[in-house]
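Quick one: structure for this chain?
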Amino acid sequence: MASRNLFSSLLSRNIQCLFLFAVFLLGSSVVSAAQCGTTPNTGAISWTTQWCDEFNGALNSPINSSNWTFDTGNSGFGNNELETYCDPSSNVAPCSASTSNAFLDGSGHLAIQVRAVGSAWTSARLKTAGLQSFHAGRIEASIQFPSHAGMWPAFWMLGSQSGVSWPTVGESDIMENWTTSVFNGPGATGNRSTIHTQITAGNGKGGAFTFPSGQQVDTAFHIYGQIWSANMIQFYVDDPTQPFFVVTASDLQSSDTWPFSNPNNPFFLIMNMAIGGTLGGTPDAQTGTQLPMLVDYVRHYTPSQIRAPQIAAPTPITVAPGATTGNTTALNLTGTLGTGRVTFSCTTTAPKPSCVVTSSDPVNVHTVDFNNDHLLLASRGLYGSGEMDLHNLHRARADGMRPPAKWTTDQAGLCFRQPGSDHRDPPLMRRRLRRWGRRRGWRRRKRHSQGQLHRHGECLYHQQSGCVSPRRYHHIQPDSELEDD
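Got it. Here's what it folds into:
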């Protein structure tokens, strides 16, 4: 188990904390496992494929009509787009069934091909509306697509609640790409994910991703996905354990509406290649001559059940009207390693006050991450007291620091010996820490006085342990190799 402390800022004395898990369960109809690909576990969570399209038909065979239908026409679709969207069977000019804009390529891919037709362009926009709907879980697609002036590819979802219009009905853009010349777009080396709600509207609330090692969207397939729970969406590229953008209901203004947890608002998926418009920008003479957008698969997974994090009863507080101090209490949260990210919220029964629960998670301050690769606390607690506040915890994580037993961290996230502790670090632990540091090229420095910690280059040093930590994150050895024998 891992122990976490949270800070709850309160403007009332009566609160109820509601913990909402990183992965929830609802979805569309189950399909045969033989028809769908699978995905590896993420930590302690296993995933079951609930729905998919693997696009495994022969060349130019029909696209599965039980999964996909088509938007058609050249209305601009609210974005001043320039293309005409065509049904694959349409021969209404400028569309042509003999040169379809959406087809199976015979190699296990859906192809969406933009075509230049005189001074215009044709393309395709597929959607699951009225056929397949989704409400939470994990949704991803493996896609390779061109990056060029005027092109605006996207993989996204829209709410469909009857009588509710956009943007109140909600939109989540899982993959959206356009050139760097328009509003600093991600271009060939990245992705943009955004949600749109009643108040965020057209601007939305989003985050950008850049491939870490020079990869590109147009030279290889990449996985674009979201892990979607009641009050949180985690967006990722290729690795679901490393979301680059996490958004929760608590990130919205109090006057906004979070549309992604309403059971009466199922969402449907859309894939398209737009030309021009708000983000597409101005096409050039070569626009429409590029290779098609290829989709290897689209899948919806649901997670295995996980044990709920447990919260110890916080210290009660009473806050006077208008108080700016004395309005916080610490919450100690304990959860199972490898169960992913948790978001939280609080409510109050008082007539006017509001409350908020925050952490120092570097991705989103309204979440706590229980993934194996990021936790610094051992299952039995390496910090003596077995707990620390999240400000310290995440500062320590950013530093890649793992203090040995009987050590804790100060308000700056630095390592020091617990007050009143007369335990000395076991010699075996010291030797292991030193060997561990030497394997990573760390240099040892002379010992210093009790309790002092010195920075040198990229390392932290302590008088008993030599080089304790790099200033950047490293995957560290299992807890058992740092404990007493």
